[in-house]
Structure formats: C-alpha cells, structure tokens
Automatic annotation (TrEMBL):
Full protein name: Alpha/beta-Hydrolases superfamily protein isoform 1
GO molecular function, one term: hydrolase activity
Species per Swiss-Prot/TrEMBL record: Theobroma cacao
Example GO BP: lipid metabolic process
InterPro entries on file: AB_hydrolase_fold, Fungal_lipase-type
Length: 346
C-alpha cells in the first residue's frame, strides 16, 4: 500500500508549475524532488508497481526531466541512484534555462524496508568507519559520474543526494574536485560524524568545547603527521576550496546538525586570531587521528564529512520529530524558514 508521501500529487511541490532556474528555492526544490524520485523508484520495484501503477515518474516528469538510467547495487540489485536529463519545452524562457542542469545524478538514502535495508545499513556502517570509498556501490556511482562528465562536460552535470545518498554525492564531488572538476552539488541532510556539541544550549560552553577540541586536534595532527604536513607545498584543503557544494541541514537532525557549528566555529576562530589552529584542525577528526596512531592512518586520513567550503542552508522551521527533521520532504515546502551562509576556506 503506497503512502501519501510517495504520491507526487499529494506530497510534491505542485506550486512550482514554472521553474526559474535562477531562483535558489526552485533549484533546491527540484533537486530534492529528483532525489525523492530515486526513493520511489526503489519502492516501486519493491512493491512491483509498474507502468500506470508506478508512482516515481511524476517526481521528475513534472519538471520536464527524463529518466535515462537507473543505478543498481551489485549486491542486492536495489536502485540507489538515477541519472536524469532535462528536456524543457521549446516555449520555456531561455535566460532561465541557461542556469539549468542538462543532467542530474541523484542518490537516495537508507530505506527501512526489508528488501533494501540490510545493504543500506551496511553502507551506513561504512560511512561511520570512513570506508564508503571502498564499497562497490560507490564505485558504480563514481563511474557513472565520470562517464557523464566525460560525455557532456562538467558544467552540464549536477549531483544531488539525501542522507546516505548525500554522503555518496559528497564523496563523488570531492573526488572530482581533486582533479580540478567542480560539479554543482545539492546535499540534503549529509551525515556529520561527531560528538553532538550543537545540541548544547549554552553558547559559551559550546564554544569552549569546540575551541578545546580544535587545539587538541591540531596538536595531534602535528604530532602524528608533522613531517608530512611540513613537506607539503600545497594545503590539500586549499585545493578543494574552489568546490562549494550546497548543504542543507536541520538543527533538529542530530545526524547532520554539526555542520552548523563546524562552519560557524571556523569563522569565530578566525575572528579571535586562532585561524591557523582551526585551518589545521578542520581538516582532521580525532577519530581519524586515533586510527592513524594504531596503524590505519591511510584509511582514516581524510574523513568524508569534512569540507573546506560550502553554501550552507539551515532549516529553522520547527520540526515535530527527528523523522521530519531528517526527511527530504522539508526541502521543497513553500513556507520554510531558511538561513543561508556562504563559507569559503581561506
């Protein structure tokens, strides 16, 4: 039995009957809807909903996209991603279309249904262990991204993902950025693995904990990697800093809310003259440094969730519960209260 949330006619952004690609709300809403389309593609497969019974197509067809490929996991054969092509009517405004994507590669997050949960949960564990790059699902995704960029050019491709899918899109984007290719990316509720400092209400306590954490992290980084850090002619974070993905987080979602403090703290450290400490600390995690000490440094040297730059959007609309705060549906509502900040690594 399909839920109302799967039905575009009941839950989709029907108010966006004309897309202005220069409008940030429109771009965000379409990207989120295309990610939802991947969720419903997999649910259609699980429920054996085909042709007229399928609920997924309206999630992209409403915005004049065409599904050109499904990305399928080689372990359980679930659909985890999709490649869409934008096919606007000839009557559409060409000034707006210039800002549109030609192709969008979208990745869904974890589905808590028996047919896919086991494999999805396995990937979630890989994120915690910082091993997503070693999975076959990511290899399939990365090859799809490389092939599409090679075929149509980097300016024509967007990445989008939610939760586990946001981690996939982030890793793909970082991998391409290291080669000088900067893809536009929309990352909804990306996981940030850290102590839940952002949930502390007292701002002084919160800042004190973050300051202490930065000093300890920077000190450990120098102690464990001092020689390699000093011998590098180029800051690895600086090489990635030109890539500015769009991050969308909810402060009530403890899986991604630490991004708020992560970027705000970096700004505060610059303001008090401790920018050098933070520039070193922000590239490392205590967990990753610990793993390097016990002999697994190569695997844990670069935590997936750490980013040099980002266009961060925070949803300040009160959430009823964690499910709503972590859900993809929040990102296309017309009445959302958003706060946006651009953070560039210096």
């Amino acid at each position: 039995m399909a839920s109302e949330r799967e039905d575009f006619g009941l839950s989709g952004p029907l108010h966006l009957n004309s897309i202005d690609w220069t409008n940030a709300h429109h771009r965000r809403s379409v990207a989120a809807s295309l990610v939802e389309g991947v969720y419903i593609l997999e649910r259609d497969r699980q429920e054996k909903r085909q042709e007229s019974q399928a609920l997924a197509p309206p999630w992209w067809e409403f915005f004049h996209f065409k599904l050109i490929r499904q990305l399928v996991d080689d372990a359980d054969f679930c659909i985890f991603g999709a490649i869409y092509e934008y096919k606007p009517p000839s009557s559409h405004c060409h000034d707006s279309i210039d800002r549109s994507p030609h192709y969008v590669i979208a990745f869904r997050g974890t589905i808590t249904k028996p047919d896919s949960f086991s494999r999805d949960f396995e990937l979630d564990i890989h994120i915690i262990r910082n091993g997503l790059h070693q999975t076959s699902r990511f290899e399939i995704a990365m090859q799809a991204v490389r092939n599409m960029v090679a075929a149509v050019g980097d300016s024509n491709v967007w990445l989008a993902g939610h939760s586990l899918g946001a981690a996939m899109a982030m890793l793909a984007g970082k991998t391409m950025a290291k080669t000088g290719i900067f893809l536009e990316a929309f990352l909804f509720n990306p996981p940030f693995l850290s102590a839940p400092i952002e949930r502390i209400k007292d701002k002084k306590v919160k800042h004190g904990l973050r300051f202490a954490g930065s000093v300890i992290t920077a000190g450990l980084a120098l102690a464990t990697k001092g020689n390699s850090l000093r011998s590098r002619s180029e800051d690895p974070f600086a090489a990635l800093s030109a890539w500015t993905p769009c991050l969308f987080v909810n402060p009530a979602d403890h899986l991604c809310s630490e991004y708020v403090g992560y970027f705000e703290h970096r700004k505060k450290m610059e303001e008090i003259g401790a920018g050098a400490i933070e520039r070193l600390a922000t590239q490392h995690s205590l967990g990753g440094l610990f793993m390097s000490v016990v002999g697994r440094g190569a695997e844990a040297a670069e935590p997936l969730h750490l980013l040099p730059s980002a266009n961060l959007t925070v949803n300040l609309t009160p959430a009823q519960d964690f499910k709503q705060a972590h859900g993809i549906h929040q990102w296309w509502g017309p009445e959302v209260h958003l706060k946006c900040n651009l953070y560039k690594y210096k």
